[in-house]
Amino acid sequence: MNTPAAAPTCGIVLVLLSLLAVLQTTTAQKNDIDIYSLTVDSKVSSRFAHTVVTSRVVNRADTLQEATFQMELPKKAFITNFSMIIDGVTYPGNIKDKAAAQEQYAEAVARGQSAGLVKATGRKMEQFQVAVSVAPAAKVTFELVYEELLKRHLGLYELLLKVRPQQLVKHLQMDIHIFEPQGIRFLETESSFLTNELASALTISQNETKAHIRFKPTLSQQQKSPEQEDTVVDGNFIVRYDVNRTLSGGSIQIENGYFVHYFAPEGLPTIPKNVIFVIDKSGSMQGRKIQQTREALIKILDDLSPKDQFNLVSFSREATQWMPSLMPASAENVEKARSYASDIQARGGTNINSAMLMAVQLLDEANRKERLPIGSVSLIILLTDGDPTVGETNPKNIQKNVQDAIGGQYNLFCLGFGFDVSYAFLEKLALDNGGLARRIYEDSDSAVQLQDFYQEVANPLLTAVAFKYPSNAVEEVTQDNFQLLFKGSEMVVAGKLQDQSPDVLSANVSGQLLMQNITFQMEARVAEQEKEFRSPKYIFHGFMERLWAYLTIQQLLEQIVSASDAEKQALETRALGLSLNYSFVTPLTSMVVTKPEGQEESEVAEKPVENGRAVFPSHSIGNRRFRIKETTTVAPSLAPIQAPSVILPLPGQSVDQLCVDIKHSQGPMNLLSDPDQGVEVTGQYEVEKAQFSWIEVTFKNLQLQVRASPEHVVVIRNRRSSVYKWKETLFSVMPGLKMTMDKAGLLLLSSPDRVTIGLLFWDGPGQGLRLLLRDTDRFSSHVSGTLGQFYQDVLWVPPAAADDGKQTLRVQGRDHSATRELKLDYQEEAPGTEISCWSVEL
User: Fold this and answer.
1) Alpha helix locations (H) across 369-492?
2) What is the DSSP-derived secondary structure letter of residue 285?
3) Maximum CA pair distance of the chain?
4) What is the pLDDT of residues 34-69, one digit of tens each?
5) What domains are there in the chain, each with its CATH number?
6) Which residues, in sequence order, are CB contacts of 733 under 8 Å at separation 6+?
7) Core-most of 328, 393, 672, 796, by most CB within 10 Å?
8) Which residues, if any, are the signal sequence (predicted)?
């Protein structure tokens, strides 16, 4: 089989539901199907990921058992090969066009054979499953190969693997090799199952251009406890990284007669925006969705640049504009818009057509009056959760009306909230008008998803970007003209070198920046580039040709969405030809795996289509599963002991801990600030509820912010947000910081030279958000804040009367009464333990 490298595409979220042992009879023991080896080998060569998953199983029962290999793939990954080895015989997967695959599948079933079928029916999610009967003592090897180009999203590439063996595995190993000729600027790992006890199973080695991440736990490390046979290895493993960039912003790389050109210039100013937010406020948005939309919109408005112009259009049965024209994003106007957004209520039908035409008219009117700054970018962002029900309701008519009205002048981005909206309708609407569509999942972090999307388009850097290469040097080049380049993203162009191409490949990239044209020039020496990729053993050789094919197919599939009926046939024919030639399972092909004779039951696995209808139940997102929060009930007592607002360890004092109760609070509080440590902790304390509504930790040197609420934790770095639920284990290592969360929900932020800061959603009496501090001797002499003051010039003053239960605490010249009291220590797992501490009220 030809195995050239898969072409570039967007994002990498590799979700592996490794091997699941599915038992055929109710009497079979749990580990009758024993996975004795599971390996994941991912080679990322110049953003292109080639991943091989191999599972080896044996039937340890004395009866026939069934083993099932099941997996979910990332949105843009293409399966390239699958095989089973049973009793020494290899059963390969054959990739065919859909009609031929269905025919072979039907013939296999008719002969009494079982055939596993993989189909790609959409470009968003993909599921693969094959089951096979295993004789007593027999062994089966499953091997799956898939490929994907990592998309740069808000400044980072991400590789996400989900590993769920569901049993202890004697040989469990993940290897991730990354090779980036530009040099690796930043690298971090994160896992939802790693703990401090498992940390030694993870090794990371890195030099200027290479990185190797290995996870190889022993059997004892995989065990939840010595008494249990259950495994702790169950969840996500993520690698994020970025590369070095030159002022030219580009890198041309060449391997085996093909080239790829990456373009992401640094240091460019942001182009001003004219943005219209079109917000669905129909009845179906009632409740949580409209509340989260209001929350997100308010924060997005705060992020507008003073150079931007904006307006809001809300719609139900009718469309309403906030102001009659575009408004400058001044502090005063933003505050007025925030007030308007906070009052948006959901009721009525869904008139998408009128709302979209109103948004276009606002931009047209500003254009006619010459109020759109020369060189600025005009965007329309539509958020809706349902299909049109009022006014024009025919999707094709709406798409035509909007495209005719926009006329190629503005870019439209469509956000589909939940699964009641036709995603295919929104996707075509966006692609027809130079934008893209995105699904917003219904969950506690929906507001964060909305904000995260806005950050992707918040900072346009260039418009009308064109790549040019010598006509005698290259051929079969992928898309080389782009409407917009946004900060934190990357443009990718690939192609084939001609047989007699020059020794040096040169390229010009032109674009418009504000009111001027700008050109970037770069070149690459063919022989040097070929040599760089030829020797390393840790890369997948021949990958660049597959990268080119992969990128070409992805772009053809995108063009098919917005093509006319007459154009679709030619586009589909070319995409199908490439899919078959390079053995890619795409929306136009399927894979059939024929199994041994006599296995009658067939297995069918398809790629679920992202068409806007329910793909997952409403309580789940992708592979994320939500558990009901467990709470501890404490029997009532006459004087229940409560946890204090904050417990502070005081280094160098005669007492170990100080319990601080906040009795007076107005608005956000500066809890801690230490400029020498580069850390700041703020929070909002609700005195009536005796709990924090939020706590925010900012590491200024790392450009990282951690915001905790009772619902979840949001980590923001370089405008990029990651959301974590309480009590979902986390182990993240990045330059300058380690972030861990255990099953009790304790989030620790630590580094060798900093104070350790802990955040916890406390389930015990007086439940709520809590703050923990460790290693407080590392505070500098410049620490300040409501809590930071207790680490500055603290003095215990002997009481006037001999009373062991009372003392005076003098902090920076101010006296506080301290009383010896019993409190619950929330630093211990709920329901906590009683401690005696000095209690101070603020």
Assistant:
1) 395-406, 423-431, 446-457
2) G
3) 98
4) 999 999 999 999 999 999 999 999 999 999 888 888
5) 33-245+588-592 (2.60.40), 250-268+462-579 (2.60.40), 274-458 (3.40.50.410), 646-841 (no CATH)
6) 188, 189, 190, 204, 739
7) 672
8) 1-28
